[in-house]
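dumping these here so i dont lose them again. two proteins, back to back, each one seq then structure tokens. dont judge the mess
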Amino acid sequence: MTDANSTLAAMFQTMADSLAAHYANPYRIRAYRRAAKSLSRLPEDVAAFARRGALDQIPGIGRDLSSKIREFLSTGTIQAYEELKHPLPPDVVSWTSLPGLSEPVIHHLYFWLGIRTLPDLETLVRSHLLRTLPGVTVSDEALLDAIRARQKAALTP
């Protein structure tokens, strides 16, 4: 196995493990694990497949994972991998004290939906899309009240 193959296999396995820890889509987790296994067993350098435009011939590698492999081959890393490695900022971690928001839900909001601030979170709640996420156990109204209270407390000297 080449260095690129083993590095990518390890990255995809780490991504799968991190996604599993955060209760992400099980099909996505399985896709990363299958890709990691295929890359670890690949007899040829993955870069050769990429040069031929044949990444999709590797079992378990579709359009999304192909783009991540090409990103790795051109930059030496995968942005999604780097995001999963980094912990949440402390102010975002504090959202776990808001009603109905668990750490896995907050992780998903931050890394996958780009929710970075309380106003961003408030906008998402107002759109009624937050309730479509698995693991959210609070009404929009209760969460909006808690967000407003936190924002008000932040403004009070």
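---- next one ----
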Amino acid sequence: MQVQPYLMFDGRTDEALAFYKKTLGAEVKMLMRFKDNPDAGKPSPEGCAPGDIDPEKVMHCEFSVGTTRLLASDGMCTGKPQFQGVSFALSAPDVSRAEQLFAALSEGGQVQMPMTQTFFSERFGMVADKFGVSWMVLVDSPR
């Protein structure tokens, strides 16, 4: 069994993928737009995206950050993604890389806890990126 995060960017998936490519070295493994739906023209199942969504928006994609696979979609495309109650822990090999990742994720985002030394890591900080995704950045090695 496997559990994978599925991020709903609410119309901002292309922007999010570009940001994660730049900041985290993310790689897009698969991307399907609404226009690529083989069932296009058929009525959508209840709860699925309505037919008036921009056909260029992302219906489903898979991308990786390091060895972690993530899934994402533009969902209903309202432009208001909400990520509450979940944070991604991002482990860096050293202080320099942790601070670099934290700074990159902070661009346009909101620092929740500045990078600092803790009892469990040489550096630890929390930030919500510009899409509202929460990240806990830490140095993987013990002090």
